Amino acid sequence: MRRLLCLLLTASAALGAQDPALRDTLASAKALWATQGDRDGAAAKFESILGALEPSARALDEGWTRVLCETYNWMAVLDDRTAGKKAQAPKRLESLLELDPDYDIDRTITNPRLQAAFDALRAARFGRVKLSLDPAGGVLTVDGKARRAEPGMHWMAPGAHAAAYARIGFQPQDVKFDVAVKDTRALDFKLARTSSVITVYTSPAGAELLVDGKTRGLSRGQVPTDRSYLADRAGVKPDQLSDGFPIADLAPGKHLLEVRLPCHRTRRLEIPAALTTPFADQELEPVKLEPSRGTLTVQSAVPGGQLILSGLDMGRVPVQDLQVCAQAYDLQVKYPAGSFTQRIEIQEGKALTLTARPKPRLTYAGFEGSDDFAGRERLLGMLGTLGGRLHEVAFFTAAKGESLKDCLARLRSGRETELILWARPAPGRSVQQVELILSTLTGQEERLTVMPLENDPLGSLAARMERQPALREPWAGLTLLDLPGGAYVLEADSAAQKAGVKPGRTLTEAGGRPVATVADFRKALAEATGGTLTVSQGEAPVKLAVVPMPAELPVNAPYLCYPLVLADLRLRYLGAQGDEASLLRLDQALALMHFREYDKALEVLRDARMVSVQGVSQGTLDYYTGFCLLHMGSVYLRDAAQSFNQALKYPQATLFGPGGPLLAPLARQALQDLQP
What we know:
With 676 residues, the chain is α+β, with helices and mostly antiparallel strands. Helices cover 32% and strands 27% of the residues. Strand 35 (532-536) and strand 36 (542-545) form a beta hairpin.
């Protein structure tokens, strides 16, 4: 059976290789002669068909073989009626018989003389086979070529032949036989049943059918005309119902049939035991699949993002209530700089909304050198799959076969990434140590030495890349100090004092739990819900408003990966406005200070302006502007003094966060230090 299916696929390939327009050419040629009497025009079209099909005549499938035979028939009739070409007519008939001796000419267009010549030629060169098929409707091949499975008399070339007949649900049968000229022999196929055959029709076509969890194939085609009543049962048009899909080889007993199609609800049907035994042909009621969709909304404050769902381009973001199939997707938003990726699940009838922002693209460019060392392949494998451990970047690798040098050049010239990771043997150290270099396109980098054979050589890097700095922190208006007596309220803003908090006294309770240290209070503050926090100083509890306030990026935190932090801040800045944009510029400058690049940090700070004057605010920007100028040499001391004086105009401005130290005393100290 498998061999027969392979033969059918081969035949289908041959069919697909022909130009379907040849059928139209055949119809046009017949019309030119039959209705217009244009023999020359018809002959030219017939000759074009012969020129296209004759070179591959032996490889044609049954359908195209009939087209070629029909063309020979018409050309024989034309030649017989054309002076000077009569001698070619018998040769056309010979070509037809050599191709398919079982083809019968069209006797309505062929004159009696040619009919007699054709019959005599066939009878003199070929023998006959009386074919019987039980059951009908199977697949017949003769000498490896598919033939029409029709019982009755068939002409065949003399000699030895091999035939095979198969039908799903029956044991296939192979027969070898001989044919003699002018002889007739019987060829009987009687197949034994091996299982019931259950035929399934689906709407729409293209559905996957599974029995007991194992796929059987896809429904195809359109329901035959004699079964069009099945479409009425399913409540669909005939062109919306597939052809029958036969399922055989079912063991006696119950079975589970699943019918799946993307964007549709899966149907699960029980095949009862009565349909599997005794063996018979069965036909299920048509299976109609209902659409299964949900909606997707993708918001983005950054312009220019292209939404990709599992490889399909869905247009620009933002998108609102996009109708999509209910299934899982690999979602990506490609921005001019950065990329956003997330695995999502769309549920039927549900709406999913998410906010996308560009995240840094990290490209692993490769390993420098070919030095062999213990653990090399293991480490290279871990580097190539590092993206599976990272959620804060979109991970890519060098193109297949691309060298490290070529990859670095491509990335830097095309700006196709924000971060580059590559590795090499650690310079001046044992070959058992490898140096990892992680760099931004503008050159800010960090280097990490790892040992390939340690338990997790990339663990430290992955952990720091997953750690994101907190750029805002909850604030309730209180500045506390740890003293022997507890958490002392050093300062309380006007709102906290109005609520009843008294500066100069300890805080005893926050969020319903005792407070003994500043850390206890910060924990309660971080866990506050509803935008409020209840506190007590040993008296009646008071309720404070909790709001997120800006916090500085720490400059030298060992748990942060600063190339990634800087790349991420640059992307966050895209689309940001007002004070939010200026805070991101401040944090970019602080990240650059980590790399001691004070000139670049100063360039970033000069573009920032804030309306806020309390906490991390405009005064903070001015202070750090002066700080950068101090590190750029004596020629900038005067400018540094101007920046520190500007910072003094904001007495409520702080460093680090809303509860950090006031910067005014620090600015005064800096000015004093600048005095000659």
